[in-house]
Amino acid sequence: MAAQKDLKSVLLKIKLGDSETMSRITNDVLTVADSDETVLIEGETGTGKRYTAKLIHLLGKRATQPFVKVDLSLIPETLLESELFGSDNGKPGFFEMANHGTLVLDELQSVSKQLQTKLLQVIKDGKITPLGARQSKDVDLRIIATTDKSLEELVKHDCFSADLYKKITEYAIKIPAIRNRKDDIKFFAYRFLEEITGELEKQIYSFTDEAITLLGFHD
Q1: For 132-181, how does the pLDDT look when each residue is reduced to its tens digit (9 = 90+)?
Q2: Considering 42, 121, 149, 209, which has the largest number of Cβ atoms within 10 A of its Cβ?
């Protein structure tokens, strides 16, 4: 418990960017993390949605429990239900893998309306029914959904469930594109640099001022 408190004290000092916009979003993250409700994170590719989801998990009461991410757009529709809810042959799905922790559903807009209805029911009831099974199973977890589309627009065009949208937007965070917050370019450049140097096991300490300036010219 003490270790979790120490972790949280460190995480509270973490920021999501240098801009005023991201400072406000950081405060939103802190507020959302204290709840245990489903969260929607909207933003274009590369805006830091997964990083934000991880931070919400680590700041919440489920920080020591599983953190499972699944990109829904990469799984064929014919396999998606069994991958999420498992099957009666005993194979666990992502919901069971994340039980008591956090399940991140990346690219939520990519699933069918039929599956959206089932997801809504799971959020409401806290129960899943594995494919082919007669009995449901209880699950206790937090769901964080991400999307790079405007779900509001998809609802207007009847391409996304209005009921599911209403449920998951009780706690919603919209992350603007980096091109609209140039003050964060240096912040993200160094964050990605840290990740890459760790993966490559090489030491690259900084960018030149010219490199940062050139990054600012790109959308």
Answers
A1: 999 999 999 999 999 999 999 999 999 999 999 999 999 999 998 877 66
A2: 42
Which long-range contacts link 126-133 to residues 24+ away (Cβ below 8 Å)?
A: 128/84, 128/85, 128/86, 128/93, 128/95, 128/96, 129/85, 130/82, 130/85, 130/86, 130/87, 130/88, 130/93, 131/81, 131/82, 131/85, 131/86, 131/87, 131/88, 132/87, 132/88, 132/89, 133/87, 133/88
Domain range enclosing 55: 2-176
Residues 127 and 94: beta-carbon distance below 8 Å: no
**What total number of domains does the chain contain?**
2
- Judged on CB neighbours under 10 Å (0-12, 13-18, 19+), 136 is middle
First to last CA, the chain: 44
pLDDT in tens, 155-165: 999 999 999 99
Residues 129 and 216 in one domain: no
Q: In whole angstroms, what separates CA 185 from the centre of its chain?
A: 21
Instruction: Supply the Cα-derived Rg of the chain in whole angstroms.
Output: 19
Domain identity same for 160 and 212: no
C-alpha span between 190 and 207 (Å, rounded): 8
pTM (predicted TM-score): 0.81
Q: Same domain for 190 and 169?
A: no
Q: Are 135 and 78 part of one and the same domain?
A: yes
Same structural domain for residues 171 and 209? no
